[in-house]
Amino acid sequence: MLAINLKSYKETIGSNGLKLLEASEKIIEEYNIDIILAPQYTDIYIFSSNSKRVRIYAQHMDPIQSGAYTGHILPEAIKEAGAVGTIINHSEKKLNVEDIEKVINIAKNLNLETILCANNSVVAAALSKFEPTYIAVEPPELIGTGIPVSKAKPEIIENTVNMVRDINKKVKILVGAGINSGDDIKKALELGANGVLLASAVTKSSNFYEKLKNLAEGFK
Amino acid sequence: MLAINLKSYKETIGSNGLKLLEASEKIIEEYNIDIILAPQYTDIYIFSSNSKRVRIYAQHMDPIQSGAYTGHILPEAIKEAGAVGTIINHSEKKLNVEDIEKVINIAKNLNLETILCANNSVVAAALSKFEPTYIAVEPPELIGTGIPVSKAKPEIIENTVNMVRDINKKVKILVGAGINSGDDIKKALELGANGVLLASAVTKSSNFYEKLKNLAEGFK
Amino acid sequence: MLAINLKSYKETIGSNGLKLLEASEKIIEEYNIDIILAPQYTDIYIFSSNSKRVRIYAQHMDPIQSGAYTGHILPEAIKEAGAVGTIINHSEKKLNVEDIEKVINIAKNLNLETILCANNSVVAAALSKFEPTYIAVEPPELIGTGIPVSKAKPEIIENTVNMVRDINKKVKILVGAGINSGDDIKKALELGANGVLLASAVTKSSNFYEKLKNLAEGFK
Amino acid sequence: MLAINLKSYKETIGSNGLKLLEASEKIIEEYNIDIILAPQYTDIYIFSSNSKRVRIYAQHMDPIQSGAYTGHILPEAIKEAGAVGTIINHSEKKLNVEDIEKVINIAKNLNLETILCANNSVVAAALSKFEPTYIAVEPPELIGTGIPVSKAKPEIIENTVNMVRDINKKVKILVGAGINSGDDIKKALELGANGVLLASAVTKSSNFYEKLKNLAEGFK
């Protein structure tokens, strides 16, 4: 599973983003892998309207029900726009622990999947208690560096797999930070991860299709 | 000018929201007034794609340029989705003062209009120094109560007009909180306001067209 | 164990607070129980200078090392002022999960004890993974109500004890919210708690000694 | 006027901080200048108990009245501990604009002075509307660099003086960021400032007295 977080990169908003969507659809056909794209909120509708097999996620949503919350992200609006899941607690959009539990429960009630982020193995283990669909471990010091966690700190992946499994047998485990090639992915999968979470490696790429192809090779 | 903040009310997301858009277009034709709708981020694209004269705003945007900001609201994405402006610093989405100045400057560079919110006259006067398109004064204790600021606290409107004009002659002044009828609007305009900012009075209405018609009468 | 959070109540700042300290010392002598007082930061020094057996805690500290953090709570300053521990993640001062782990580790390095707060059993279980000295479960809807959690929602205490023990055998478990009498405490201890966390029941009392005496009876 | 913000530097907590206090008292006697020290909250009591002419400030306080605010900074506790004022809205402890107005009004009611911080001239002008005792302008990009604002960006000081005076004739104007010597201070005063706000230049100094002496020369 390849999850791509488009963050606030302008390279992948609007019509440019749709090119990434198109390339992702091709890769799914060729490699039969699972791809998630998490665009800006404003792009969820147009992405999901144009996707066939790519699953569209939000990058965050607020732990709220319908109400007087100006500027907040209503989970029901995320769902209505066509998203099938959301990232939660990314290191660039942290939540307090009470809100993490609340928003995961709201997601479950709406049948939205969740990628819940953690900065290390211990935090991943603690958060797995909330039973998200995926736990993603990303050491913040490697995010955006191009130094792949699977090579620089393989023990983080191994520890996460072991510690999370102690608490929660079912949750799928993603790893991220610095992942840049199919080889980095292969290594992550060998260490027990179920998939990866990427961002700039793809969004900043000059050729989305070629980049995704290289990454997809890691799943063979 | 009638600005309607759809907040996180589920009554006006997706296709329901488009009915409010349609009713607003009709009112503009009949009354020749200016209407702004500020939907959830996820609805900006579909609202702006379907609007003729209604101007679509975001409810907030973050003081950021393109970059690694997961879950944030990129101003360029707001613009790309078709919004022509944004609310800033609503009492339900407050910003620190440094970020207010930053995001107003970003909006100006992108030719986005701004409705900058203040909770009282003194704050409105201070913030008018940043030269937003509109200053909106809303006493938080009246928001959502149905007790109209223009009748319950007319001195807030008069003071705001006087104090803001001392610092900034050009900015247009909106008032909000509890505004519920054409009569409340008439009173606000008489006190020197250039328009009003509403939310639940419209979004919770069982008949958008009739509600807007009643409000529009206040501008005659 | 009786932990009393003085919050931002003016009734227990400065010299008034010292009267509560004095009453607490008397109760410790008479009942041989363990009492913690968590005053305003500004009072930690004078409380710890005057305490004999009462243990003085901070109400919060920031996950920081010495540095350029204006207005923050430096853990080393808390220690230097004489505190022996700190409350963390109270529902009135929530932290993101990454910072919770960080500040617990900083506390351990400084030999400071920690009372880590959780709003329900599942959150308590997750957070017990971080190995604080105490986990305190407090349903926010009962805080300050005078409706004791141990009587209104005994299942929260039982579930917390069971779920926390699954993950962490050593951490001591406190309960709070609405605890107002020795009888409420007795019930909490019977359900498996190791102690209680209180606030307004004591700080708003007209006679600190009599109130504490009534509470201490619950430990017999 | 020389205001020194001790931030969260461990070099100036507890008994080490008292040495800085002592050096400051000597400088006041020798140079007859006005010195403010803003220590950690935990040190306010012991600093103010030991000060003769040095004025003790808090680094921040919360916009609250007595109540259930765990971990917050109660203004009345700041006052009770002996502080005579507080820094507000430092770039390391920013507040939303509504809270800035609230906390300044609370300070006035308690007869506490205020140093209200702004990151540039326009923000300083806007905030001067709230009538703090002092406005301090500090370009964040120079804080802690040792590159003095008075030499690197003299126009910021001139613009601030002019723009603030347009809105508020009475407020005293401080400047900060990179100020490191008496010469930097002399230049700031020549440009129209009434004093300076410093931090690491003093707190990281190996000899508080000699450092302060060098700075005090700037006021001659």
UniProtKB/TrEMBL annotation, chains A, B, C, D:
Keyword check for Nucleotidyltransferase: no
Origin superkingdom: Archaea
Species this protein is from: Nanobdella aerobiophila
Stated family: Belongs to the triosephosphate isomerase family.
Subunit structure: Homotetramer; dimer of dimers.
Pathway the protein acts in: Carbohydrate biosynthesis; gluconeogenesis; Carbohydrate degradation; glycolysis; D-glyceraldehyde 3-phosphate from glycerone phosphate: step 1/1
NCBIfam families named among the record's database cross-references: PRK04302.1, tim
Keyword set, alphabetical order: Cytoplasm, Gluconeogenesis, Glycolysis, Isomerase
UniProt-listed Enzyme Commission number(s): 5.3.1.1
A single MF term (Gene Ontology): triose-phosphate isomerase activity
Official protein name in the record: Triosephosphate isomerase
